């Protein structure tokens, strides 16, 4: 497994913040070629085994901005991307490299913009024929992610007439607070930013909502919502052969599987918006460490993830 | 071949089930996982947990 650990160390040591991923893209493509897999770069994404149509492994090589240099200590690899999501991506790359019989059935794509606008996942969704898909995101080596929440990113704009603070009327900030309280009755928005003056207040809201609970943002005569992103939630079919393959592989590796409902979103939402083929998310690593300064993955967790992915890939292409 | 539902004790028949397949108990509706076929063994399906992140 030294080779698998070197792969992850090398990948994490190459900065790949969204928009500046070309070095990591090139490194991963060359690693795949070196392992005898067909690999190309297309639109900044690494596509491994591009003609395969039996199973798609969809990961991302971009990260949010860093948390210091890579460190290897106490059995952990620490650094930006070690969990989200170079850990799951490298685990899948290594697992696939060990399964030559799967190379004509299993395609792996590492996209460069999952932390950004997910335009590559949208392009793949709209251009590839549908096939079962494992999205490579961290859920723990014995966790299977079956759902992601939906996301609405919206700007709230409030206007109020200029008035003296001793006079009747309301300042825009006061109207904004009332509007936010109305929104909070329907969902639990995060207020990303807020600014304004007496006449005008703007707030950016990030709303995550579960299946069947999409909040309605209603305009009034004083306030308007501009939706910047509207990603629907996704819930996988637990009866799919992908779930069965992962359950079996986790049990074979000595684990007790659990299902995860994630509060975030991923490219699973993007594919699931149009695809009816089974989709599930899997990957080693603790997703609570995503985007934190303490992002790190234990090597045992990573190795177990490789073992599970290897078993699940083999099993799913036999079905 | 049958096995008791581990939740309510109802008899459940193995009619072409697969290992690690998830099925509902026809009596109590609990989600169950087929752990083994020979001998036929059922367990409650893994729990669903909420988790932060991507």
Task: Please give a quick description of this structure.
The complex is a heterodimer of chains A (319) and B (54). Chain A contains 8 helices and 16 strands.
Number of strand elements of chain A:
16
Q: What is the end-to-end distance of chain A?
A: 28 Å
What Rg of chain B, in angstroms, do the CA atoms define?
12 Å
> What helical percentage do the residues of chain A reach?
25-40%
* Largest sheet features of chain B: 3 strands, antiparallel
Trace the largest sheet of chain A across and list its strands: 1-2-6-3-7-15
Q: What is the largest interface, and how many residues per chain?
A: A-B, 34 and 18 residues
Number of helices of chain A: 8
Give the strand content of chain A. Answer: 25-35%
Helix percent band of chain B = under 10%
CATH class type of chain B: Mainly Beta
Biggest β-sheet: strands ordered side by side in the sheet of chain B: 3-4-5
- Average pLDDT reading of chain A: 95
Outline of chain B, from the CA principal axes? Answer: globular
Helix and strand string of chain A, N-terminal first? HHEEEEEHEHEEEHEEEEHEHEEH
Topology:
The complex is a heterodimer of chains A (319) and B (54).
Chain A: H1 2-13, H2 22-34, E1 39-42, E2 45-48, E3 55-60, E4 71-73, E5 76-78, H3 86-97, E6 106-111, H4 119-127, E7 133-136, E8 143-148, E9 150-159, H5 172-186, E10 190-196, E11 200-209, E12 223-231, E13 234-235, H6 241-252, E14 258-262, H7 267-272, E15 279-282, E16 296-298, H8 299-318
Parallel strand pairs in A: 3-6, 3-7, 7-15, 8-14
Antiparallel strand pairs in A: 1-2, 2-6, 4-5, 5-16, 8-13, 9-11, 9-12, 10-11
Chain B: E1 2-4, E2 11-13, E3 22-24, E4 31-37, E5 40-44, E6 48-51
Antiparallel strand pairs in B: 1-2, 3-4, 4-5
């Amino acid at each position: 497994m030294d080779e698998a650990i070197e792969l992850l160390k090398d990948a994490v040591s190459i900065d790949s913040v969204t928009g500046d991923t070309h070095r990591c893209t090139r490194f991963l493509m060359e690693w795949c070629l070196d392992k005898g897999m067909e690999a190309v770069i297309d639109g900044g994404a690494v596509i491994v085994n591009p003609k395969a149509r039996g199973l798609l492994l969809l990961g991302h090589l971009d990260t949010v901005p860093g948390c210091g240099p890579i460190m290897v200590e106490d059995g952990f690899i620490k650094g930006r991307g070690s969990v989200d999501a170079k850990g799951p991506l490298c685990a899948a790359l290594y697992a696939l490299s060990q399964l030559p019989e799967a190379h004509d059935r299993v395609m792996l794509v590492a996209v460069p913009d999952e932390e950004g606008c997910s335009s590559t996942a949208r392009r793949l969704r709209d251009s590839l024929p549908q096939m079962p898909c494992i999205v490579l995101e961290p859920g723990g080596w014995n966790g299977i992610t079956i759902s992601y929440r939906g996301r609405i990113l919206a700007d709230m704009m409030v206007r109020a007439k200029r008035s003296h603070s001793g006079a009747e009327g309301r300042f825009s900030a006061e109207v904004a607070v009332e509007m936010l309280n109305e929104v909070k009755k329907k969902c639990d928005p995060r207020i990303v930013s807020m600014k304004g003056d007496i006449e005008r207040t703007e707030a950016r809201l990030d709303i995550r909502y579960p299946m069947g609970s999409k909040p309605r943002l209603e305009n009034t005569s004083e306030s308007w919502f501009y939706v910047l992103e509207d990603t629907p939630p996704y819930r996988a079919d637990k009866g799919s052969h992908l779930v069965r393959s992962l359950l079996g592989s986790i049990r074979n590796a000595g684990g007790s599987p659990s299902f995860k409902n994630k509060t975030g979103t991923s490219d699973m939402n993007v594919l699931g918006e149009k695809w009816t083929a089974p989709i599930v998310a899997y990957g080693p690593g603790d997703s609570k460490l995503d985007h934190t300064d303490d992002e790190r993955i234990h090597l045992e967790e990573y190795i177990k993830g490789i073992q599970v992915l290897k078993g699940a890939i083999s099993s799913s292409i036999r079905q | 071949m049958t096995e008791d539902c581990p939740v309510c004790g109802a008899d459940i028949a193995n009619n072409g089930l697969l290992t690690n397949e998830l099925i509902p108990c026809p009596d109590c509706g609990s989600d169950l996982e087929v752990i083994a076929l020979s001998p036929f063994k059922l367990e409650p399906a893994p729990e669903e947990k909420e988790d932060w992140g991507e």
